[in-house]
Design a protein that fits this description.
36% of the residues lie in helices and 18% in strands. The protein is built from 16 helices and 17 strands.
């Protein structure tokens, strides 16, 4: 296993904060596309991670950490490998080290959550409970810094007194961590309470490691330029954005916010591409809609009971492979398996897809492995009588132009007849092997 050699820099960065149910792979990738420099996973508990098995998912090209009940606890991919920080909940140094070693080759950094005020976290001695136990904080962070090759950070809340806060961060600095994220509120304070920029600034001036300011969404951050304003107000090295990014991830775009509908469609593409559970997809989309949840469109989203329901209301470019993957997921079948070969004589590709122990392929050879796999997926879908979605991948490639019953789905008759009116001269020949 190759260790990632890229070392994260925490100065002058915009960062997607760790957020429960938000920090899954589709949101992290979307944030990177829109300009974020670093993305944090949602907090994952060390005990749960140590129960997982690491699986190389060749269908999705991901690394999955899968629990005994087959639930995917953490999913990552090559695209984010140099940018994703794995945030962990822990109350034990050795257990934290074991979990960190388990994931370190697949991520860019490790973070310890020391600020979560939720009852579950505190009762387990994690999160904000650690703030009253500096000895344990020091043991956990020192053990990680010495035991793994990736940079270690932690995220804390401020203490009731400035002196106690400064004493704590100075002690944390001595452990050798790469940076510290400060949520500028006390444990009992919530988003509606003002963020204490003065305390974050005092911390930034008191220690030499990068300070990442967090908590400015309510009072400061409404668009990209506000991120810099918040950084200056706190004298921090970088800014971590939570709720403003949850509401519209294009907050990271230097060029300005994108229309919410466009952002949602881009998010859905990633959700489909990486087989995100529809409940998580629905939750993230609802957070983006916010006050529009009572609109007709919002009500339809709220009522959605599958990924396909969501696609219908928020059409995105859905490829045949996505459609086939979703169908297999719905039918509780194993994921499709693609076997692709290249012909030495002309360099063209042909792919065979296996679904439910049946093999499907196209008689056509294609210019790329990607197109060959899409062709095989189309054959499979048509043979099964399923909609194939829309594949449009550029000039001189397959361009399927169809009439639609609804966004993202084929008209039933066209699905039966194969290529619809306006399809290219290249014809796919359905072939079940």
């Amino acid at each position: 296993m190759t260790v990632n050699s890229v070392k994260l820099c925490y100065r002058n960065k915009t960062i997607l904060a760790p957020m429960v149910r938000i920090g899954s792979l589709p949101m992290r990738l979307l944030a990177l596309d829109l300009g974020a420099d670093i993305v944090y996973s949602e907090e994952l508990i060390d005990i749960k991670m140590l129960q997982c098995k690491r699986v190389v998912n060749e269908v999705l090209n991901t690394i999955d950490f899968v629990a005994p009940n087959e639930r995917i606890i953490f999913r990552t991919c090559e695209r984010e490998r140099d940018h994703v920080v794995f945030q962990m909940g822990t109350a034990d140094a050795e257990r934290a080290l074991a979990a960190a070693k388990f994931v370190e080759n697949d991520v860019a950094g490790i973070d310890i959550n020391m600020g979560c005020p939720k009852k579950f976290s505190i009762q387990g001695g994690m999160g904000a409970a650690l703030l009253s136990n500096p000895d344990k904080i020091e043991m956990i962070l020192s053990t990680l810094v010495k035991g793994i090759c990736k940079p270690v950070t932690c995220k804390i809340r401020i203490l009731p007194s400035l002196k106690d806060t400064l004493d704590l961060v100075k002690r944390i600095e001595k452990t050798g961590i790469a940076a510290i994220a400060i949520h500028g509120r006390k444990e009992e304070e919530r988003p509606q309470h003002p963020v204490h920029c003065d305390v974050i600034k005092a911390i930034a001036e008191a220690i030499s490691i990068p300070v990442i300011a967090n908590g400015g969404s309510h009072d400061y951050i409404k668009e990209y330029s506000d991120i810099e304003a918040f950084r200056q107000a706190t004298a921090a090295s970088s800014v971590m954005v939570a709720r403003a990014a949850m509401w519209n991830p294009s907050i990271f775009r230097k060029e300005g916010l994108q229309p919410l509908e466009k952002v949602m469609k881009e998010y859905i593409k990633y959700a489909v591409r990486f087989d995100n559970h529809y409940i998580n997809t629905k939750y993230c989309l609802c957070q983006m809609l916010r006050e529009q949840l009572e609109s007709p469109l919002g009500k339809k989203l709220h009522a959605a009971q599958s990924s396909q329901n969501i696609w219908r209301e928020y059409p995105a470019q859905i490829t045949p492979k996505m459609c086939l993957l979703e169908w297999c997921h719905k039918e509780k079948l194993p994921q499709p398996v693609y076997e692709t070969v290249q012909r030495p004589s002309n360099g063209l590709f042909c792919s065979v897809v296996t679904v439910a122990e049946q093999k499907y392929k196209s008689s056509m050879w294609d210019k790329s492995k990607k197109l060959a796999e899409q062709a095989a997926a189309i054959v499979c879908l048509r043979t099964l009588g399923l909609p194939t979605g829309e594949l449009s991948e550029g000039k001189d490639q397959y361009l399927q132009k169809r009439k639609w019953e609804g966004p993202g789905f084929l008209n039933g008759r066209e699905a039966e007849n194969g290529l619809s009116e306006g399809a290219p001269h290249k014809r796919l020949h359905a072939r079940s092997l």
